[in-house]
What does this fold into?
Amino acid sequence: MRTGLVQEGVALRFVPMASTFLFAILSMVPLHVPGLAVATPAFVLMAVYHWTIYRPDLLPASGVFCVGLFLDLLNGTPYVGVSSLMLLTARIAVLASRRHLADRPFPLIWAGMLAVAAAAACCEWMLTSLLTGVALGSRPFLSQAVLSAASFPVVTYFLAQIQRAVLPRD
Amino acid sequence: MTAAHRVVTPFLILSSLLLIVLGKADMLMFENVRVVASDALAPILSAAARPADALANGIQHVRGLLDLYEENQRLREENSNLLQWEQVARQVARENGELRKLAHFDPKDASFAIAAAVIANSGGAFARNILVDVGTEQGVARGTAGVTGEGLVGRVAEVGKRTARILLLTDLNSRIPVMVESTHEHAVMAGDNSDQPRLLYLSANSAIKAGDRIVTEGADGVFPPGLPVGTVASLGGDAIRVEPFAELARLDYVRLVDFGLAGVLPPNAVPVAKSDKDPKAVASIRGR
It folds into this structure.
């Protein structure tokens, strides 16, 4: 482990953090696809899920907290901190079940993502409804969860390629 | 895992909760941070939006080629229709000009207009806003209306030096005084993060029906009366819903128009910076 870190070099160890921040920016890009603006896939959640399974040491809780704040500030939501809370909770859940996820067949990992995305959407919906004082329509939250689960294979493939290219296995 | 590691996550979770509570107590608390962050990231967001734009244009192009014939047919029909309307418009404009002269009318409409590219939209499921690439440096002020050729998009809620955030009509926090164009019945259009905002405070015996045009009422002093907003989409169920004219999901460019009305804006408004720094960008839309 220790020699691994030395070999990787300092710069490469920031790849998980950098890719997660990049995904935060990606989720802001206007795609001009009808229906998609209503809910963009939760790219950041996917990145946090991926890195927490494979390299939790390189995406620590503090990094997750920061990317959550970054996301909320860019999103223009009045409730800064909601994404941090949601992402940190997801990280705890994934860490707890990491033994059942790492190096398992892909469908299992995918099912895990589906569960995390659904739980996150549910939490976000409840928290936002509570904060605004009205029961919001649940559709945007549900579509975001479905879109996230649907686009996860592509996202995780992309992240796995980066991981294989720049980070040796721990 | 060391003891220090074990306390980090709970500490960060508590911090998140604290930030949420602070944000709830004072909605404007994070505004300055948000504005600075958007300004700082504007070049990156701009650059990221370009390939996405190109991709979307490419898809549009291929789609356009596929139904070129039908599109042509449709445009021809539309064109003949529009030519008739042009005649009407010319006539009405002339008549209007004469009546204004007679009434010594002092026009108070658009004093400032600028085109802006959309560089980001809120990706989350709980906010509906867009970020555009103009700010106080170009003379944009808080409350400026965002419009497209089709109709109203929203209004500037936050403005930085180089960026402005437009709260869309569909956002949960958007409230716009509107009226039914044909009957002049007043109502408030309230967003709820769905695609179609609701109409509130319409009188119980209202004669409103599906397809009615909804326009701004002008009472807020931010928008002039009569700016097109949308059509009534559905009456049944829980609420009367309005389908906005502007395609909010695929905005590339919006026009920011200051109608020169000293409207009622939320407190803590950013200092108004109406300037003629860039005379090319600033153009009077009167007479267009």
Notes: Chain B touches chain A through 54 residues (CB under 8 Å).
